[in-house]
Structure formats: structure tokens, C-alpha cells
Write a structure and sequence with these properties.
By secondary structure, the protein is of the alpha/beta class. Strands 2-1-3-4-5-6-7 form a 7-stranded mixed beta sheet, with helices on both faces. Strands 10-11-12-13-14 form a 5-stranded parallel beta sheet. The chain has a two-stranded antiparallel ribbon with strand order 8-9. Strand 13, helix 12 and strand 14 form a beta-alpha-beta unit. Helix 1 crosses helix 5 and helix 7 crosses helix 8.
């Protein structure tokens, strides 16, 4: 048996529930008979995080410490690694950031770094620790002495244990915040950093998803769950089968859910079926109202298609959330004006626009690779002054805008800030109406 401590380092903005990816890894280890503790430091300040980690290491005495690193918290994770004492404990980095830059954690105190999905790889690491075997053949695993073969994708998602089995066994007081019914996204957006699950779209069977929903309802009393799929509606036959399976289960009657999808991956008839199956809100990825920008970022959609999708969701009685982004390279006043016009057209049928939305160039994306040298933001996540902080009280203050990765001219920066304020004012009006009606 291996004793594994899974750590989520501090993040600039808080998470309000246990991290689902960490819970999947914990569930895999628990199902194989290992001892697991999860330490969620996402909301902790650096001194508190160091103290809590040191205390947990002293108390639990882990053989393995696994840290989940996003780009936003990679530096925080490296600083935590520095304060850990030398010893027999193996320190491994996993998650989105090591998937893109697997060698970087090795130069910041980690023994191992993992690319790709973690459930199978972490079990192989635990087995090697138990048997004294080698890490060399583990797909996606990098060590200072070399690396294994490239990571693949997990095809049989039904075989993974449900993440909620980790809720109590690992010391967490709450079940992970949501459900994932599929992995991967077939889109090719140039700003997207979705590399852990990749582009190959894979999905769980309707029966497997319904079984998890039933457990969440019966064991934990949940009556609402968010589905966190990157592209929930990407495959129509799968979507229809899942909705029909939910509708066919009497014990799920009245259970509601939300989902996320690109605006071009859903049809009006899909939304009607989804609403009958319990969908009460849908989050649309739209990003821009300018056709040229949409082509440049490979979004694969048109403003007309987006308008039709949001209209249909609102007509079906759903809450509508719409995502726009600002500050793309080569985006000027004319392109921003087109985005503003589409936002204004969607406003009457949109309940909530995403907060902030200024482009962040994440490593591994086409936008980062194309522009980091030109604009001088290479390895920005290792510079504390460039990591977007928690937002302030100014409605136009997007932390990413303040970092000004793309050196926006003052007038353009002011126009972007005004669009951020525009969304905030819309959202405040919507929230005010709902408070009064409630």
C-alpha cells in the first residue's frame, strides 16, 4: 500500500468545491487499495499553505505527494516544493501545466512530472513504488533521467471509479462540485489550453452517467449538478441518448443540471430535449462578434448561429450564460465594435455574461506560441507580477487587462475595459431583477 497525499496549491481566485480532477485521481488510488489524503489549498494564502502542507506531511507521512498544477498556480506549487524536506517521498507534478511543459517542474524540485490524464499513470507510479520497479515505461511520465512513451487517452471512461467515492475517505467534507460525462473537445480554438483530456472526444455511456447521478442523489442528497464537459453537445446521438436515459429514470425526476458548449455545437431541437431532461442553464462559448476574429481564432461559428442557439435556449426556459473574450492579437476598434454590437443584440435574451474575459496567453496554445517572443511574455507564469491576481472592486478591472500581455495602446485598453464594465453592468441588473422577484 502506498500513502499518497494529493495537493492543490493556492490559486489567484478561489474554488468553492473540491477539485474534480483531483478527486478522480484519489478515487483511482483508493480503489486500488492505497491510502489517500487530499489537501485543497486553492483558497489559502502562501504562508497558510506552507504551514498546512508541512503539518499534513508530518501527520500523514506520505510515500508520494502529487500536486495538481495549473499555469496560474505553477509558481505557487514550485514554492511549496522548495520547502518540503529531502527524503524518501516522491514528489510528482500533474495537471494542465505539466502536460504542456513536463520538463519545467523537474527543474523546480519535482522528482516526476506527468503529461495527460492521471488515473492510470498514478496507479503505475504507485505500483513502481511498491515493487521497486522503474518509472521509465509509464506513458506520459517524465523524470530527470528520462521519460516514458507519449501519453495516450483513456478510452473506457466507464471503467473509472466515480470521483465522489473519495469525498469522505480522503478527509473532504464535500463531494466534488459536478460531473464530467465526456472528455476532450473537437474544437481547435487557438486560445484554448485544454491539453490534459485532449482533442479526441470520448464519452461515458448513458447508463454510467445515470448511475453516478443516482448515487449523488441517494447518498449525498444532491438535486442539482453542473456538467463540466468542455463540449457537452459535441455529438448529437450521444446527447440524445443521455437525455433520454435521464428522462427514463424515475428517481432522477426533478434533478436539474447545467452544461457548457460552443455556440455552434447545439441546435434548437437539442435544447428542447435537454430542458425536458433537467437542463436549467447553458453556458455558450462565443468569444467574438467579429467574423475576422472568429476565423483567426478558429472558433468555427458565425454570429447568426450563436444568436439562434441563445434564442432557442431562452425559449426553452433556460438561464443563458454567454462568454465573450477581448484583446485578441490584431483586434482593433472596429473588431471590438462588432463584438459590442453582438453583445447588445444578445443582451435581451442573455441572463449573464462571463465575468472579465480579457485574453490570457496560456503556454502551449497557438496564440502563445505565435506571440510570446514578439510581445515579451515568455514564461510569464514564473513572474509573480504577471500572474493575474484576484479581481478588485472596479467593474472594468480585469486582472489580465492590468497585466497587458499584448501591450495594448491606451485607447484600445480603455475600450476593452469599457466592454468589461458593460458586461458587469448587465449582470448586476440581471441579479437585481432576480433578487427582487425572489
Amino acid at each position: 500500500m502506498v500513502r499518497a497525499l494529493l495537493v492543490l496549491p493556492p490559486l489567484p481566485q478561489p474554488m468553492n468545491a473540491p477539485y474534480l480532477g483531483q478527486q478522480y485521481v484519489a478515487a483511482a488510488l483508493l480503489s486500488a487499495g492505497h491510502a489517500v489524503r487530499c489537501l485543497d489549498l486553492a483558497n489559502a494564502r502562501a504562508p497558510v499553505a506552507r504551514t498546512r502542507l508541512a503539518e499534513e506531511v508530518r501527520r500523514f507521512r506520505p510515500d508520494l505527494i502529487g500536486m495538481t498544477l495549473f499555469t496560474y498556480n505553477a509558481l505557487a506549487g514550485y514554492r511549496l516544493a522548495e520547502m518540503l524536506p529531502d527524503g524518501d517521498t516522491i514528489l510528482i507534478a500533474g495537471g494542465p501545466h505539466p502536460t504542456v511543459l513536463p520538463e519545467e517542474p523537474l527543474s523546480h524540485g519535482f522528482d516526476l512530472s506527468l503529461s495527460g490524464e492521471g488515473e492510470h499513470a498514478i496507479l503505475a507510479v504507485a505500483e513502481a513504488l511498491e515493487t521497486g520497479g522503474s518509472f521509465d515505461a509509464i506513458p506520459g511520465l517524465h523524470a530527470r533521467t528520462g521519460h516514458g512513451p507519449p501519453h495516450g487517452t483513456i478510452e473506457d471512461l466507464d471503467a473509472l471509479p466515480f470521483p465522489h467515492v473519495a469525498a469522505k475517505a480522503t478527509g473532504e467534507d464535500a463531494v466534488a462540485g459536478g460531473v464530467v460525462t465526456s472528455r476532450g473537445c473537437p474544437a481547435r480554438c487557438t486560445f484554448c489550453a485544454n491539453y490534459v483530456t485532449g482533442r479526441a472526444y470520448r464519452w461515458r455511456s448513458p447508463e454510467n452517467v445515470v448511475a453516478e447521478l443516482l448515487t449523488l442523489r441517494r447518498k449525498f442528497g444532491l438535486t442539482h449538478v453542473p456538467f463540466w464537459d468542455d463540449a457537452f453537445t459535441a455529438r448529437r446521438p450521444r446527447l440524445e441518448a443521455l437525455c433520454d436515459a435521464i428522462l427514463a429514470e424515475p428517481d432522477l425526476a426533478g434533478m436539474t443540471w447545467t452544461c457548457i458548449t460552443p455556440g455552434n455545437m447545439v441546435l434548437p431541437k437539442d435544447l428542447e430535449r435537454m430542458r425536458r431532461a433537467g437542463c436549467v442553464a447553458i453556458n455558450f462559448g462565443i468569444e467574438s462578434g467579429d467574423r475576422g476574429i472568429l476565423r483567426a481564432i478558429r472558433k468555427g461559428q458565425t454570429p447568426e448561429r450563436v444568436i439562434a442557439a441563445v434564442q432557442a435556449a431562452k425559449a426553452a426556459g433556460m438561464t443563458t450564460i454567454v462568454n465573450f473574450m477581448f484583446g485578441f492579437p490584431d483586434e482593433g476598434p472596429e473588431e471590438l465594435a462588432n463584438t459590442r454590437a453582438l453583445m447588445a443584440q444578445l443582451a435581451p435574451m442573455t441572463d449573464f455574461f462571463n465575468n472579465f474575459g480579457v485574453l490570457v496567453p496560456f503556454p502551449g496554445t497557438a496564440i502563445y506560441d505565435r506571440y510570446h517572443l514578439e510581445y515579451g511574455f515568455t514564461d510569464w507564469w514564473l513572474d509573480p507580477s504577471r500572474i493575474p491576481a484576484a479581481p478588485g472592486t472596479d467593474l472594468g478591472c480585469d486582472p489580465a487587462l492590468e497585466r497587458n500581455f499584448f501591450n495594448y495602446a491606451p485607447q484600445l485598453k480603455a475600450e476593452i475595459a469599457d466592454l468589461v464594465r458593460w458586461k458587469a453592468r448587465h449582470n448586476a441588473t440581471w441579479e437585481s431583477r432576480n433578487v427582487k422577484s425572489g
